[in-house]
Amino acid sequence: MRLGTTLPQFGDAVDEADRIGAFAAAAEEAGAASLWVGDRLLAAVDPQVGYAGTDTIPVEFRRALDPFALLAVAASATSRATLGTSVLVGPLYPPAVLARSLGTISAIARGRLVAGLGIGWSPEEYAGAGLDFDHRGARLDELLDGLDTLWSDTPAPLPGPRFPLPAAHVDTPRERPALYLSAWTETALRRVGQRADGWLPVGRLPGDDLEGQARALRRFRANVDAAATEAGRDPAAVGTALRVNVAAGVDAAAIADGTRRLVDATGFTEVFVDPMYVAPGLDASLDLVREVLRRVA
């Protein structure tokens, strides 16, 4: 198992932003194999769609640090850990802007970046970016086309209706990161198998039915593999990085045990935990991460 953690980014972590680099370095030194950030543009007061199937948005999301700035800080403070996004709301960003930001971070990190993209779930975030919430999947497909073109060796025009660009030279680092996609629906899972470098599933703790979670995750992964095979790709070349969301009140022993059980039941060996609700402060979060890593090791 390669076990990592999210970086403190939301809620009270905003008050300790100047310590994120030290946190990243200490987590890597403790054995964290990967460090991850998320992407929250805003938290609606009266959301049309809530978080994770609810009708509300966690209070922690009312305060958020910029994912690109955090990744740049973490890239400068570490030398071994994989750095990842889980996930960026991809359609909020024009391809040229995202290619520049991700390429720069990947260059700073010397190729350690995994760019995880999703379509998002908040209509208000799309409104905040001046975008229509509809046709998000089509926007993501066009974004992926644009990134492929911008990171290629041959400039070419982007004729798409949402992100049209002439053939252009992009004088920014062309350090192409691995592109992973968050996906649960049949269409989205097919997209992973057809064109992504990997998949970003989610588990949760505590879990009264971890085996049930694992069965669902294995079934989704089978859909990814089938799509990869159909597209003429080797399914084994499509990675998986399992995020484990941890609810408040779960201690380090339960996190370590639950994570091990999910890994054993799914076979997904790249995994990272999100202790945001368990240990909101940087010191408490680092202590928890160290203890989980110790118990897993």
TrEMBL record:
Principal EC category: oxidoreductase
Q: Name any one GO molecular function.
A: oxidoreductase activity
Stretches assigned to the Luciferase-like domain? 15-270
Annotated EC: 1.-.-.-
Entry's Pfam families? Bac_luciferase
| Keywords for the protein's UniProt record, in alphabetical order | Oxidoreductase
**Gene3D superfamilies of this UniProt entry?**
Luciferase-like domain
SUPFAM superfamilies per UniProt? Bacterial luciferase-like
What is the protein name for this chain?
A: TIGR03619 family F420-dependent LLM class oxidoreductase
Native source species: Actinomycetospora lemnae
